[in-house]
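Incident log, entry 3
Record: Long-chain-fatty-acid--CoA ligase (627 residues)
Problem: checksum mismatch between cached and fresh output.
Input:
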Amino acid sequence: MGWTFGLPALLVALLVILLTKPGWRWFYIAGATAKRDITALYAYIKLLHLIKKYEKKNMTIADIFHTNVSKNPDKIVILSETQSWTFRQLNEYSNRIANVFHSHGYKKGDVVALLMENRAEFVGTWLGLSKIGVITPLINTNLRGPSLVHSITVAKCSALIYGESFTEAVEFILKDLPSNVALYQYNNEARTPVSGNAKDLTTLLETACKDKIPASAERPSHHDKLVYIYTSGTTGLPKAAVISHSRYLFIAAGIHFTLRFQEKDIFYTPLPLYHTAGGIMSMGQGLLFGSTVSIRKKFSASGYFADCVKFNATVAHYIGEMARYILATPPSENDRKHRVRLVFGNGLRPQIWPQFVERFGIKQVGEFYGATEGNANIMNHDNTVGAIGFVSRILPQVYPISIIRADPDTGEPIRGPDGLCQLCKPNEPGVFIGKIIKGNPSREFLGYVDEKASAKKVVCDVFKKGDMAFISGDLLMADEKGYLYFKDRTGDTFRWKGENVSTSEVEAQVSNVAGYKDTVVYGVTIPNTEGRAGMAAIYDPERQVDLDKFSENLAKVLPAYARPLFLRFLTKVDLTGTFKLRKVDLQKEGYDPSVISDAMYYQTPKGKYEPLTKEIYDKILNHEMRF
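Fresh output:
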C-alpha cells in the first residue's frame, strides 16, 4: 500500500511499543548491553563450532594435546620453580604411565586415584591414564583420615597413586582402605624405599616405553569420563563430580574464547591442579591450545607478582581470597614490573576490585562463576566491577540460565499456583539454575558418581511440566541490565579459603573428637574477609574437652580450611526447637564475647585454641589479625 500507509503504521507500532511493555526501557537496556551480548555470542558460536569439530572426529583430550605436541614439540608447556617440561617431555611421560598401568592390567573404565602436589607429573599421570581409558579421581591434597578414605572409596578406585610427601597420610588410612586398592608411590628419585606394599612407580617408569601407547589398549571416546573432581556440594562428605573429555574441553575452551586468550600467552596459576580452576581452566590452555602454563606448589601472596615477573606471565589466575592477601603485601617493584595484561578467577570482592587493578596495573579482569558438577557457568568479560557474569536481557534463549525464587535457608524453589518455578525480578535474590539439555555439552548435567547425590541437584517442572534444570544452591541477584552478583550460599555449606565446607561433615568429625558431644557447625563472617569462617558450638556444660588434644586430633581428620576457626562451649541447648532453627540462632549471635556468656576460643596460626577475649575480638574487627 506504499509509504503513505506503511510509514505511519510503523510509527504507530513503534509508539505502542514505547508506551507499553516492554516499552522504551527495553531499547535502552538493549543498547547498553548490545556490545557485551554480541561479544559473548560470538565467543559462544566459536566454542560450539570447536566442540562440534572435535565431537565429529571423536577426539579425546589426549588427542587434542597430541596435535600441540606435533606442532610445537620443544615448546615449554609446564613451568615451575624446579621444572620446565616441553610438550614432548609431557607426552613421553604420559606414554610411560599408560604403558606401566596397561601392563599391570588396568583398562578402559577402571578408576585410579591420584594424590600429588602441583607438579608436571600430576598432569602427565592423569593424561597418561586417560590414554588407556582409565578414569582418574583427583584427590584434594588437604584431605586426611575419614575424608581421604571416603574420596578413594566413593569413586570405587582400584588403585591409588600418591607422591612421597603424602606417605604418612596414606599410611594412616591403610587399615581403612579396601583390600583391592593397589598402591603406587611416586618418589623424586628412582630406587627409593616405598611404604609397605606400595609399588615403586618412579622405578617402573624408567623402563617403560615413552614413544607410543599400547596398541592393544581400548581407546576412550569423546564423551567418556576423564577425571573426577571433588566438591563438597551442599551436604555431606566430598562428592566426586564427573568430568568427561567433552566437559573438560567445554570448560577450558569456553573461558579461552570469552576472554580471548592467545596461544602465545604465558599463564600463571598458584591454584591446586586437583580443582577445576587450576586443573582445567589454566592447565587446559596448555594442553588444548598450546600455551605455556606456569605453576606453583603453594600460593604465596608476596611471591605472586614476583612469579609473574620470573615466568614472564601475561595472564594470571586468582581466587578472591588470594587477591586480598596480595593487596595486603607491602608495595614492591614487582607491582608494575610484570607483563600481566589480564587476571581471571572467581571471588574478587567489589570492595577491593578497583584498588587491585589500580595498584597492579591490570587492564582486564575476567570474573567467572560456575560449579564443577554443574552446567550453569557464567563470565564477566567487560570489567564490570563486582559482577560474576550476566544473563542476556535481549537474547536469553541462547544460553538458558535463570534466577528463580527460593527459600534462602533451604534453597528449595518457591513455586507458583501452577506448581512451576517463578523468575526473580531485577535486584531480587534467588537461586541460580541452568536448563538441562541431554546430549548438549554446554547444557548437559553429568553430576556426581553418586547418582542419589546427583538427583538432589536437579529440579523438575521448572517453567513447564517435564523440563529440568541444575540448581546451584547459591543465591544470586541480577540487576536491570542482567549483570549477576553473588549474594550467599544456601543450606548447610559455607565457603572458606577458596573451598566449600560441608557443615554436616565437620559436625561429625568435631563431635567424634570432642567425645561424641552434641555439636553444631556454621559459618560466620569476619570483616574484610571473603567467605565465612567455621564456628563450632559444642554442648559441654562440664567442660570435659581437652583443647590441646582436641586440636591435635582434629588436624588428623579435617583439612585446615574445614577446621573451625572459633569454638563455643554451650552450657545449655534448646532441644525443643528444630536443629536447623537453633543453628540459625547461633549463627546470628556470632562470636562477640561481650554479648555471649559461653566460653569461646579462636584458633591461632599454629592451630591451637586460645580464649576469645574482648581484646582479641576487637583486633579481629579492626583487621589486625589475619586468618
